[in-house]
Amino acid sequence: MNLEAGFLFIIFLALFGFTNYLIMLKRYENDLKQSQIIKKNRIAVLYPKGTFISV
After folding, report:
1. What span, in angstroms and rounded, lies between the C-alpha atoms of 37 and 31?
2. Taking Cα atoms as reference points, which of 35, 32, 54, 36 lies closest to residue 44?
3. Mean pLDDT of the region 5-21
């Protein structure tokens, strides 16, 4: 019984870690996309509308 419970616990930890990794990866990609949009908007403010950068 203890061996079976140990294997189930290891499987649970692996699944929990994998889902946590996927959630953090998605959050990182979203934060990276947001920071790129913010940088582009800050640069676009420096130029007249319709010239160098169009957002």
Report:
1. 10
2. 54
3. 97
